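Quarterly update from the structural biology core.
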Amino acid sequence: MPPFTAKELNRATLARQLLLERSRLSVPKAVERLCAVQAQSVPEAYVGLWTRLAGFRQPKLTQALERRAVIRATLFRMTLHYVSATNHAAFAALTHPRWRDELLRKGIPVDELAARIGQLSEDGPFTYAEGNEVTPELGERPFLVRCITPLVHVPPAGTWGHTRVRLTTAELPTVEPAEAAALLVRRYLGAFGPATRQDLLAFSGLRVADVEPGLEGRFRRFEDEQGRELLDLPRAPRPAPDTPTPVRFLPRWDALLLSHADRTRVLPEEYRSAVITGGWVHATFLVDGLVAGIWRLEEGKVKTEPFAPLPRAVRRELEDEAGRLAAFLA
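Predicted structure, tokenized:
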């Protein structure tokens, strides 16, 4: 298998994440290309698309959510993601059966609870608290209500400026497990590849048996510098390792930092503890394709904290991009 250097791996991933140059894709197409945009709170999804799309403005994602072209739901690793409507059914068809099996093993009557939530949704959108009221069997684990049956956030929930969550049950077409697994593998490699099988499992939180049917297609195969097998789509971009990379700002919990078992392709190991603290993942910025510091919004300005001294030209580029991000957030 042809070897794949760390620099080649970095550039290939950045190209698929639309971070080498801003894309002119529509918001639904971009979200589809990115597989799943992780966003624990609303602004992160908007910042994640701003840094990847040319001319992105807040109403573009809001309108995509209102038209149901983009869906906000709990999916991989039981975390909130924005996904395209074209991917949602397959992704839910993989994650929810896994959660259902775990709940059944704990003695939770999943079918009965799902029926109650379905009845609740017939009266209109509901809150998590209202969902918890009809599922008392969850006891001290009320957050598991999102795993009983596929739920989606109803706009304006999930849109810029709105923090209140309202839910409804998702009406999804039936997707065969093998078909769903094949779509997930294609979308994952298209957004985060080349990657190992362990990378795919780390991203999805699924079992080997859940994704195995999707690994039977035709793939390019490489090795990384540690000798691990990398899978990739035949026609996916694999730029030269010396491809220039602009400064880019990433929001908190950006999927780029969380979607591989080996995160060193973008996050140097020496900075990991400064970026990922417990369940918190800080907002970061990239220099030469790698995490080089963290940032925060303070009094209307984007404040940056580099982990190491930066060259003067990079500092200027960083300040310019920080100014543009502050204007977007304002």
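The two ends are 49 Å apart (CA to CA).
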